[in-house]
Specification:
3 domains; mainly beta; 24 strands; Lipocalin; rod-shaped; ten-stranded antiparallel barrel; 503 residues; 13% helix; Thrombin, subunit H; Rossmann fold; six-stranded mixed beta sheet
Length: 503
Amino acid sequence: MTLAAALSGLAPRTAHATPELDRRYALDTVGYLRSWDNMDGLFVDYVADAYRDYFSRQSRFTVQDLGKADTVLSRSKIPYKKLIEDREILVEVARTSHSQTLIRTEVTKEGAQYRFSIEWLLAPSMEIISSGALTLTDPRDGSTFAMQDLKNKLEKTLDEMISAVPFAGNVSGRDKNTVTINLGSEAQIEPGDTLQVSTLDGVKRHPLLNQIVEWQLTKTGKIMIDQVEDKISFGHVISEEPGQQITPKQKITAISKKAVVSANETAPTETKEKGTTAAALYAPPAFGWVAGNLYMGGFSRDYSSLDNTINTSGGGFLFGVSAQGQLWFTRNWFADFSLGYGFYNYSQNSASLGTSGWTNFVLDGGYSYLINDDVMGPKAWVKLGYRSNSYSLPDSSANNIAAISFKSLFLGLGGDVPIQDGWGATADLGIGLFKGESEDSNFSGNATSVSDVSFTLGGYYRYTPRITFRAMLDMQFNGADFDSQRTLSQKVITFSPALVYYF
């Protein structure tokens, strides 16, 4: 009986369908072969102890026992080095121990140098996932080197080998919107962390060395962690790429830590209050935002005629409120809504003419270009929509004033730039394309041209991923030229603090 046949008899053979790449490269289980050295096994126990300690602290891998396979191999008359380099033998070792991956270690003494070569192999093809090497120098003064130094170097090399694989773990399961991953607190996962999930589309191998040289991944979606245990975590899906779905065995390719709170604050916990976990407060938004604004500023109006027989100007301090919202249909497409009202005591040519109001309404849709593929990151947008600005001035032909409204189909351009530590800046420009006006008394005549321009500039502080404080300088310009040779120009310029809630 051949050695491969003996190994094959340790476990029943089962038929397996060809798995998809995500499943094949799950890398969930690992077995470390007994090391080989050319010094009659001097380092075998030291290396085994180092590996045992290292993997006992890893939540990503399940370590498989290779004891039975080691027993069979140790009884063979074939040199051990030759056995662990035989692909057929290694395939059987992996199969019988249910190991997806094997670690092979060879130690060679060359003069005063000890060279450790480590390879991480994937069954069943035994292609090299990654490899590493380290050296130790035998002291010339007759003393022995510290085995702790060997352990430290072995662990550092293993860290480097594992980090060369561009994913940290796998999706273990999914039930509706709930996702389980094979990483926990031992991997520094915390509630509120956001994990990027990707699908492995392929790998490129070196044509001669049978070593993986490139991993090809496609982003699938993102999950937010809700609950963490030592070796496992539970979260929920917050976004999925168009045409993609998060499924078991897909890869965790990036981990974004939860928002950092200030030194005077208490970090979020899993304590429930009114049915909502604190971790949920720190979850990235998925659907859009709503905001409440205050308006503090001024309204001004200039009205004149070309023959200078009319030349009036007036204005007043404006105070008001508005409600705004944005709904995300996808990560890029959105719709905006805004409704605001302000009032002011209008004075013209030093005469008070009573309280008046300003009503602003906006409804639009647009597309955001996400520069870093993050809805909370830097972005630019373009939008198209309808808006109206109504000024409820008192009708008084003697004072050349009347209530008037401006309406337009407008084009908007803007951007949002996070700067540092939650601070950011934003700007928005709106230009009326198809415009119209409606004056209550129509004493000015018919408008021959209408202007409708808005500009907003300001900054914000992102307190948590869901709560942002914003302060803006809002400017609205409306005007018209009439066939009566009269000209009207109106401006509303306000400072607008706001509380924005993302959901």
